[in-house]
Design brief:
590 residues; alpha/beta; Beta Polymerase, domain 2; Beta Polymerase, domain 3; 4 domains; seven-stranded parallel β-sheet; five-stranded mixed β-sheet; 24 helices
Length: 590
């Protein structure tokens, strides 16, 4: 069955190709439709299968023309007009646009001038000095491409957490329904909630491994079968590699610990085991002080496994038992990076990590006043339906980095202020007036002070000049008396640009002194601040705010990515501004 993500990807490709070939207006319509298809709570393919364009009427932005294309794809597996665009512009659009500063229009111009179709060809042309000779380009643009090609190539090898997690959930739900499956969990870097992952690892406990492998390789969402054995298999689904491993139920706990990783964490645990005359591996913890007989002779795919099971097995039925055997409490997966978590566990100093339920509001959201998709009233209603106690409306201001009329002018902000207050008067949820102002290259704020003074909350974010050292500009912004939150501080865009270099300890120290919070932007394309920066910020005394940067009500669901990123940064509830009560938040921002 074609997923909503697959259909959205097709519409986004359509938009990019239209953009690259110089078509006006349509690309924006296709991108908006793609966003709404991706976020739609029901299967769009099921609706399209009715062969009735009216069945898609409820999806905002999907008009007759786009609906007909979705129906065409569901019925035939292709879209004729999209195939024509691909033939007209036969380029690796995703690969080329993964280079910072290279958008669809640039791809179109470089194809027309130089015939560039791939990342390798782009790099070769830049190295040969050919790009700066193309009209509208120059030496600086060419050097920027060269500087960012390697990053784009490396980034292309990993998937965003926000793309991989839904895929992992789908395969897990499917496998849990298969006969003979006793337990099923995600593992690897996905269970540790890393910002990017290499593949989706899924672990199953079963006494019928071949049946589970057979069911897995026949999963409807598996587009490509990579390999299959008696107890493990790999497929590709929606472009993401999914690896399955099946173990016997009594070894599920040890396997889950082992395959969650990370490698450095596991090595440190194994060394701790050796210090205690123990052996720790995917089959359990074994007492090898006197060579006992193997606890199990079950064969494994790579061999008998008996040498790994030598000794008396003292743990492994559960993951908790693996840590208990080493005189440690269970360590949350997000912390397993060998960054001091084992020492903290030994000393009883593991953090009391925050959870999703601890977050009580969202302090960074957008509406149709700027580049959001819904009204103020709809965003407030969405926040209330999500369970929030408060929400801030923070549309983009005009200023550096805002193009295409996206930003709201100072005078328009004052007009919006009245609308937000009118909506607030009709609802039980607390609604803060606000803005996402732009931080220029010197740290200046793009909204007049007298306007900022009228608002409850000001998020100040960098949107331009997102390379080099950004510490001083952010420090300057954090000191501004009206700024309450520094939004997505580094400006990074995962797999697209690394963002600013920031001395987080210095920024956090200044932010703490001036009552300014540092944001963890939960959009999975950002996750900014990242985990290590969060820990450094907390250690330096700063308060963090976990916001979704929501542009539609469905985006409130992105909160989980920000929470787990903050957990990777050892954040406790008290460290996070929007776990506080409404009164305490108002006190912080006043």
């Amino acid at each position: 069955m074609t997923s909503n993500d697959q259909l959205a990807d097709l519409l986004e490709e359509f938009a990019d190709l239209l953009d690259a070939t110089g078509v006006e207006y349509k690309p924006r319509a296709y991108r908006r439709a793609a966003e709404n298809v991706r976020a739609y709570p029901e299967s769009v393919a099921d609706l399209a299968a009715r062969d009735d364009e009216d069945a898609l009427d409820d999806i905002e932005g999907v008009g007759e023309a786009i609906a007909s294309k979705l129906i065409e794809y569901v019925e035939t597996g292709e879209i004729a007009e999209l195939d024509e665009l691909r033939a007209e512009l036969p380029v690796d659009m995703a690969g080329l646009t993964s280079v910072e500063g290279v958008g669809p229009k640039t791809v179109g111009k470089l194809y027309e001038a130089l015939g560039i179709t791939t990342l390798d060809e782009l790099e070769a042309a830049a190295e040969a000095g050919e790009i700066q000779e193309v009209k509208g380009f120059g030496a600086k643009t060419e050097q920027n491409i060269l500087d960012n090609v390697d990053f784009a190539r490396q980034a292309g090898e990993r998937e965003l957490l926000g793309d991989a997690y839904p895929q992992g959930q789908r395969v897990r739900e499917y496998l849990q329904s298969v006969d003979g499956v006793v337990e099923c969990e995600l593992a690897g870097s996905l269970r540790r909630w890393r910002a990017t992952i290499g593949d989706v690892d899924v672990l199953v406990a079963s006494d019928a491994p071949e049946d589970v492998v057979d069911a897995f390789t026949n999963w409807d969402d598996a587009d490509v079968h990579i390999e299959a054995g008696t107890s493990k298999a790999s497929v590709r689904s929606d472009g993401v590699r999914v690896d399955l491993r099946v173990v016997v139920p009594e070894e599920f706990g040890s396997a889950l610990q082992y395959f969650t990783g990370s490698k450095d964490h596991n090595v440190a645990l194994r060394n701790r085991a050796l210090d205690r005359d123990l052996k720790m591996n995917e089959y359990g913890v074994f007492d090898v002080s006197s060579e006992a007989e193997p606890a199990s002779g079950r064969p494994t795919e790579s061999g008998s496994g008996d040498d790994q099971r030598a000794g008396e097995r003292i743990a492994g039925d559960t993951e908790e038992s693996m840590y208990d055997a080493l005189d440690l409490p269970w360590i949350p997966p997000e912390l397993r990076e060998d960054r001091g978590e084992i020492e903290a566990a030994e000393n009883g100093d593991l953090p009391d990590l925050l959870g999703l339920a601890d977050v009580r509001g969202d302090l960074h959201t957008h509406t149709v006043w700027s580049d959001g998709n819904d009204s103020v009233a709809d965003m407030v209603a969405g926040a209330a339906a999500f369970g929030h106690e408060y929400v801030a409306i923070t549309d983009h201001a005009t200023g550096p980095g805002m193009v295409g009329g996206v930003g709201v002018s100072d005078d328009e902000l004052l007009d919006q202020l009245e609308e937000v207050r009118d909506v607030a008067a009709e609802v039980e949820i607390e609604v803060f007036t606000g803005v996402e102002a732009n931080v220029d290259a010197e740290g200046g704020i793009s909204v007049r002070d007298e306007v900022l003074e009228e608002l409850d909350l000001v998020v100040a974010s960098p949107h331009v000049a997102l390379d080099g050292d950004g510490t001083e500009r952010l420090v300057t912004a954090a000191k501004h008396p009206e700024v309450n939150v520094i939004g997505h501080p580094t400006g990074r865009y995962l797999n697209r640009r690394p963002g600013l270099d920031v001395d987080v300890e210095r920024l956090a120290s200044v932010a703490a002194d001036h009552g300014t919070a540092l944001e963890v932007n939960a959009n999975p394309a950002r996750l900014d601040l990242g985990d290590e920066a969060i820990r450094a910020a907390i250690d330096a005394g700063a308060t963090i705010a976990i916001d979704t940067d929501a542009h539609r009500p469905a985006n409130f669901e992105l909160l989980r990515y920000g929470v787990h990123t903050a957990r990777r940064g050892w954040a406790e509830p008290s460290d996070v501004l929007n776990t506080w009560s409404t009164a305490d938040v108002r006190g912080f921002i006043s």
